Amino acid sequence: MRVTVRAVEPGDRADWDRLYVGYARFNRVEQTDEMRDRVWGWLLDDEHPVRAFVAVAPDGELIGLVHYHAFPRPLAASTGCYIDDLFVAPEGRRSDAATRLLKAVADAAESDGRTLLRGVTRSRNYRARVIYDRFATRTDWVVYERTPNRQPDGGTSTT
Protein backbone atom coordinates (compact mmCIF):
# COMPACT_ATOMS: atom_id res chain seq x y z
CA MET A 1 0.00 0.00 0.00
CA ARG A 2 1.39 3.38 -1.03
CA VAL A 3 0.87 5.77 1.89
CA THR A 4 1.25 9.53 1.73
CA VAL A 5 1.72 11.81 4.73
CA ARG A 6 0.53 15.38 5.05
CA ALA A 7 -0.44 17.92 7.68
CA VAL A 8 -3.89 17.51 9.18
CA GLU A 9 -6.63 19.58 7.47
CA PRO A 10 -10.04 20.83 8.65
CA GLY A 11 -11.86 18.27 6.48
CA ASP A 12 -10.08 15.40 8.25
CA ARG A 13 -12.17 15.62 11.42
CA ALA A 14 -14.30 12.45 10.98
CA ASP A 15 -11.34 10.22 10.03
CA TRP A 16 -9.14 11.80 12.70
CA ASP A 17 -11.88 11.17 15.30
CA ARG A 18 -12.05 7.50 14.30
CA LEU A 19 -8.28 7.15 14.60
CA TYR A 20 -8.02 9.03 17.89
CA VAL A 21 -10.80 6.93 19.43
CA GLY A 22 -8.87 3.83 18.33
CA TYR A 23 -5.67 5.21 19.84
CA ALA A 24 -7.39 5.94 23.16
CA ARG A 25 -8.93 2.45 23.25
CA PHE A 26 -5.60 0.83 22.45
CA ASN A 27 -4.03 2.69 25.37
CA ARG A 28 -7.01 2.00 27.65
CA VAL A 29 -7.66 5.71 28.13
CA GLU A 30 -11.21 6.92 28.56
CA GLN A 31 -11.86 9.85 26.30
CA THR A 32 -14.91 12.04 25.73
CA ASP A 33 -16.21 13.97 22.74
CA GLU A 34 -15.31 17.16 24.60
CA MET A 35 -11.70 16.02 24.99
CA ARG A 36 -11.44 15.25 21.29
CA ASP A 37 -13.06 18.61 20.46
CA ARG A 38 -10.38 20.35 22.53
CA VAL A 39 -7.49 18.48 20.88
CA TRP A 40 -8.96 19.03 17.42
CA GLY A 41 -9.17 22.74 18.18
CA TRP A 42 -5.52 22.74 19.20
CA LEU A 43 -4.51 21.07 15.93
CA LEU A 44 -6.20 23.78 13.86
CA ASP A 45 -4.97 26.68 16.02
CA ASP A 46 -1.75 28.15 14.62
CA GLU A 47 -1.05 29.66 18.06
CA HIS A 48 -1.15 26.28 19.84
CA PRO A 49 2.09 24.26 19.94
CA VAL A 50 0.56 20.85 19.10
CA ARG A 51 0.83 19.86 15.44
CA ALA A 52 -0.27 16.77 13.51
CA PHE A 53 0.44 14.75 10.43
CA VAL A 54 -1.85 12.09 9.02
CA ALA A 55 -1.14 9.04 6.88
CA VAL A 56 -3.42 8.70 3.88
CA ALA A 57 -4.18 5.42 2.08
CA PRO A 58 -4.47 5.36 -1.73
CA ASP A 59 -8.28 5.52 -1.42
CA GLY A 60 -8.00 8.79 0.54
CA GLU A 61 -8.91 7.30 3.92
CA LEU A 62 -6.77 8.34 6.89
CA ILE A 63 -5.02 5.32 8.38
CA GLY A 64 -2.62 6.96 10.82
CA LEU A 65 -1.82 10.04 12.86
CA VAL A 66 0.99 11.58 14.82
CA HIS A 67 0.81 14.54 17.19
CA TYR A 68 3.93 16.42 18.23
CA HIS A 69 5.06 19.65 19.85
CA ALA A 70 8.18 21.68 20.58
CA PHE A 71 9.59 21.69 24.10
CA PRO A 72 12.37 23.73 25.73
CA ARG A 73 15.59 21.95 26.67
CA PRO A 74 17.17 24.27 29.27
CA LEU A 75 20.26 22.15 29.91
CA ALA A 76 21.02 22.07 26.19
CA ALA A 77 19.85 25.67 25.69
CA SER A 78 17.82 24.48 22.72
CA THR A 79 14.38 23.31 21.67
CA GLY A 80 13.41 19.70 21.07
CA CYS A 81 10.41 18.02 19.50
CA TYR A 82 8.22 15.64 21.50
CA ILE A 83 6.16 12.98 19.75
CA ASP A 84 2.94 12.78 21.77
CA ASP A 85 0.76 10.29 19.94
CA LEU A 86 1.51 7.85 17.13
CA PHE A 87 -1.23 5.54 15.89
CA VAL A 88 -1.87 3.50 12.77
CA ALA A 89 -5.22 1.77 12.30
CA PRO A 90 -5.12 -2.03 12.02
CA GLU A 91 -5.76 -1.88 8.26
CA GLY A 92 -2.60 0.21 7.80
CA ARG A 93 -0.20 -1.69 10.03
CA ARG A 94 1.37 -3.72 7.24
CA SER A 95 2.26 -0.49 5.45
CA ASP A 96 5.08 1.92 6.20
CA ALA A 97 2.62 4.50 7.60
CA ALA A 98 4.21 4.70 11.07
CA THR A 99 7.69 5.12 9.64
CA ARG A 100 6.50 7.79 7.21
CA LEU A 101 4.70 9.67 10.01
CA LEU A 102 7.84 9.66 12.16
CA LYS A 103 9.94 10.78 9.19
CA ALA A 104 7.55 13.69 8.60
CA VAL A 105 7.99 14.78 12.22
CA ALA A 106 11.78 14.43 11.91
CA ASP A 107 11.77 16.55 8.76
CA ALA A 108 9.59 19.22 10.40
CA ALA A 109 11.83 19.20 13.49
CA GLU A 110 14.93 19.67 11.37
CA SER A 111 13.29 22.45 9.37
CA ASP A 112 12.29 24.18 12.63
CA GLY A 113 15.80 23.89 14.11
CA ARG A 114 14.89 21.36 16.80
CA THR A 115 17.88 19.61 18.36
CA LEU A 116 16.25 16.39 19.54
CA LEU A 117 13.25 14.17 18.89
CA ARG A 118 11.76 12.42 21.91
CA GLY A 119 8.87 10.00 22.24
CA VAL A 120 7.60 7.28 24.52
CA THR A 121 5.59 4.13 24.07
CA ARG A 122 4.28 1.56 26.48
CA SER A 123 6.69 -1.24 27.28
CA ARG A 124 4.04 -3.77 26.21
CA ASN A 125 3.65 -2.16 22.77
CA TYR A 126 6.14 -4.37 20.97
CA ARG A 127 4.97 -3.42 17.49
CA ALA A 128 5.64 0.28 18.15
CA ARG A 129 8.92 -0.49 19.91
CA VAL A 130 10.24 -2.23 16.79
CA ILE A 131 9.48 0.91 14.76
CA TYR A 132 10.96 3.26 17.38
CA ASP A 133 14.07 1.05 17.66
CA ARG A 134 14.68 1.58 13.93
CA PHE A 135 13.92 5.29 14.14
CA ALA A 136 15.74 6.41 17.31
CA THR A 137 17.96 5.31 20.18
CA ARG A 138 16.38 3.87 23.30
CA THR A 139 17.61 5.75 26.37
CA ASP A 140 18.10 4.76 29.99
CA TRP A 141 15.82 7.54 31.26
CA VAL A 142 12.98 6.42 33.52
CA VAL A 143 9.75 8.38 33.22
CA TYR A 144 7.77 9.41 36.30
CA GLU A 145 4.30 10.91 36.40
CA ARG A 146 2.22 12.49 39.13
CA THR A 147 -1.11 14.24 39.22
CA PRO A 148 -0.64 17.70 40.77
CA ASN A 149 -1.47 17.87 44.49
CA ARG A 150 -1.67 14.08 44.81
CA GLN A 151 0.81 11.95 46.69
CA PRO A 152 2.30 9.04 44.71
CA ASP A 153 0.19 6.63 46.81
CA GLY A 154 -2.96 8.46 45.71
CA GLY A 155 -3.34 10.56 48.86
CA THR A 156 -3.79 14.32 48.85
CA SER A 157 -0.79 16.55 49.35
CA THR A 158 -0.58 18.39 52.66
CA THR A 159 1.87 21.01 51.43
Automatic annotation (TrEMBL):
Entry-linked Pfam families: Acetyltransf_1
Molecular function, one GO term: acyltransferase activity, transferring groups other than amino-acyl groups
InterPro entries, per database record: Acyl_CoA_acyltransferase, Bact_Acetyltransf, GNAT_dom
Keyword Transferase: yes
Keywords tagged on the record: Acyltransferase, Transferase
Record flagged with keyword Transferase: yes
Location of the N-acetyltransferase domain: 3-154
Database matches in PANTHER family: AMINOALKYLPHOSPHONATE N-ACETYLTRANSFERASE-RELATED-RELATED (PTHR43877)
Name by which UniProt lists this protein: GNAT family N-acetyltransferase
Species of provenance: Pseudoclavibacter endophyticus
